[in-house]
Amino acid sequence: MSVMPKAANKMRADAPRNSASKTPLLDLVRVPEDMHGFDDEQLKQLAEELRAETIDAVSQTGGHLGAGLGVVEITTAIHAVFDTPKDKLIWDVGHQCYPHKILTGRRDRIRTIRQGHGLSGFTKRAESDYDPFGAAHSSTSISAGLGMAVARDLQGQDKKVIAVIGDGAMSAGMAYEAMNNAGDLKSDLIVILNDNNMSIAPPVGAMSRYLTGLVSSRPYIGARDMAKKVADMLPPPLKKAAARAEETARAALGGGTLFEEMGFYYIGPIDGHNLDHLLPVLRNVKKAGHGPVLIHAITQKGKGYAPAENSASKMHGVAKFDIVTGSQYKPKSTIPAYTKVFAQSLIKEAKKDERIVGITAAMPDGTGMDLFGYEFPERMFDVGIAEQHAVTFAAGLAAERMKPFAAIYSTFLQRAYDQVVHDVAIQNLPVRFMMDRAGLVGADGCTHAGAFDIAYLGCLPNFVLMAAADEAELVHMVATAAAYDDGPLGLRYPRGEGVGVDLPENGDILEIGKGRIVKEGSDIALLSYGGRLNECLMAAEMLEKWGQSVTVADARFAKPLDENLIRRLAQNHAQMITIEEGAIGGFGSYVLEFLNRENLLGTCRVQTMHLPDLFQDQDSPAKQYEDAGLTAQDIIKAVTQNNE
Asked: Cβ atoms within 10 A of the Cβ of 602, count?
């Protein structure tokens, strides 16, 4: 029986496939221990089958594809050489972990990935012992791995720690902070740099295999350590000459000077898709045990699947797709996504104001800043996975009277909170934070949900906070942000499509701290902040059928609050409910604080509705909001319960 996916007979000729004469191996592997008897040729076959299984699974579920295909051989080699889960394997970010999950007892559930009650799209400690550290934000693996290595040393244990980090994640300062500490502590730690931004020229392959096999061996490492000790005893001129000669020799074997200076033993570059290169190096490193080691592996994102290899994004994140063509099954819609509305609105404002610049942290497509960059290439800056730098970079621009728009997902802005506080808020610099993916985000789950920005920005002096209730409001708020120059500003908006309202040709500049009445009533007030306004309107329609008169208001601003609007709602209604797509401690808390200060809580029953005080797992956005209790039906239920 073939282990190839059912759709394999439709696959392109250049897609991975097994020879009919080979006995399938993937069916024999439930956990990595089952691979340990395989010879190198069988491991190559297993990698082919693993790639095919990954392609087929993601074609049915959607998810991250290109990154996983790029590490199939690395995944196979690590699990074949090391003794996981005793040996700890940490994947940075974790979006490349689908092949890892298939080999570690989760193949039978791989087609539930990123779905409700299914597997997470990232590594997750609660899911498997083979996931020793959960990840979904980047550049954490070396720090976590070093912590595990030191814990091993303190407890006198015998196990290896392997961290796999991509070249993109190496753009974040945290990775270098960890490497600096690792080089100082000299604990045994293996870091594999998965570099898919280079290519190995064909003539280099054979020599690279020989040299990297040589320099990763125990005799070479021991001899090099001895040579260093001998060099240390030489007179200064000879010692300096010996150091230069050693550095030149290392450069000839592939470079790595930066990593060497940080205390790592550098091996590479090696072909990350060639098991004849990977397996000997990993076996040598496993035996060597001489402090921190960095293996530089060159890979290709989307490797082995032509549509991914030929895609500009290497099919990084995909919807369900046809295996033969790679075409994704995306429903067509005439309603624009919030991200696109933001980008188009910013472009219009930038055409009127040359001081507007755009900043993103390695997410140009996801934030819409790629569109801005096409129009204004000299005014768009992608700083890489470096949110801390992005924020302070924006602060520097603002200090020189530019108008920086830092488009960073709500969840990723958390990574730069200190910079937001010290470099922006304290100095009252007009940096404009455009927070995409506000609220719940569906398949990416709790690690990518924009749940906390209302609370973590609202407590900071000098900030203005806005939330778009629909795509038309987003147009107005981008114009407002462009005009506002008195301090920092945060604008949040959801993931996905708008609600289908007509878009204005140009945005109006809103009065700061001024909300709006959308529907006037007399009994119940629904005060929405952000994307739940439509649910409030649907709830009001149902309640009015039952004889209730309902006011629906859009707060627009969480800071400053529209105190006159809130006072009016409290004084003229028997009941008021605030609704927001954020965690406890946000907009509703600000409203309660104001009402308490004004002694208005006794005049009106007030209830806050917000995201639950827990981390919600992945599901469809609609199901997530249903579970969170933030649908029209939940609003109706809250009203009726309070009236009983």
From this structure: 8
Report the 3 state secondary structure along 414-462. Answer: HHHHHHHHHHHHCCCCCCEEEECCEECCHHHHHHCCECCHHHHHHCCCC
Q: Where are the alpha helices (DSSP H) in 155-265?
A: 173-185, 204-215, 218-232, 236-252, 257-261
Question: 533 — phi, psi (to 5°)?
Answer: -60, -40
CA–CA separation, 119 vs 365, rounded Å?
A: 26
Quote the Cα angle for 448-385-165, to 5°. Answer: 90
Compute, in degrees rounded to 10, the torsion defined by CA atoms 139, 140, 146, 150: 170
- Interval 326-376: pLDDT, tens: 999 888 888 999 999 999 999 999 999 999 999 999 999 999 999 999 999
The amino acid sitting at 372 is F
Report yes or no: 154 and 147 within 8 Å, Cβ to Cβ: no
Percent of the chain with pLDDT over 70: 87
Enter the CATH code of domain 82-304. 3.40.50.970
- Give tens-digit pLDDT for 184-228: 999 999 999 998 875 444 434 443 454 455 456 665 566 556 555
For 338-492, which CATH class?
alpha beta
Q: Which helix (H) or strand (E) holds 587?
A: helix 587-597
Question: For the CA atoms of 402, 408, 413, 419, what is the dihedral angle to 10 degrees?
Answer: -20
What sign does the dihedral 97-102-105-107 (CA atoms) show?
A: positive
Non-local (6+) Cβ contacts of 252 within 8 A are none
| Residues whose CB falls within 8 Å of the CB of residue 325, separated by 6 or more in sequence, listed in order | 307
Residue showing tokens 């090696």: 270
Task: Provide the β-strand partners of residue 317.
Answer: 64
DSSP symbols for 175-206 = HHHHHHHHHHH---EEEEEEE-S----TTHHH
**How many C-beta atoms lie closer than 10 Å to residue 486's C-beta?**
10
Q: Give the catalytic positions in this structure.
A: 301, 387, 415
| C-alpha to C-alpha distance for 585 and 452, rounded to whole angstroms | 9
Q: What is the pTM of this model?
A: 0.87
Contact 77, 99 (CB under 8 A): no
- Express each pLDDT in 112-158 by its tens digit: 999 999 999 999 999 999 999 998 889 999 999 999 999 999 999 99
Domain 517-643 matching CATH 3.40.50.920: the answer reads: yes
Would you say the C-alpha torsion 128, 134, 140, 146 has a positive or negative sign? negative
3-class secondary structure, 548: coil
What values do phi and psi take at 346, rounded to 5? -65, -40
Domain ranges for the chain, please list them. Answer: 82-304, 338-492, 517-643
H helices then E strands: how many in the chain? Answer: 25, 19
Please tell me the least confidently modeled range out of 96-110, 170-184, 304-318, 608-622.
304-318
The distance of Cα 541 from the centroid of its chain, to the nearest Å, equals 38
Q: What is the largest CA-CA distance in the chain?
A: 96
Residue 79's alpha-carbon distances to 31, 33, 87, 91, in angstroms, are 9, 8, 10, 13
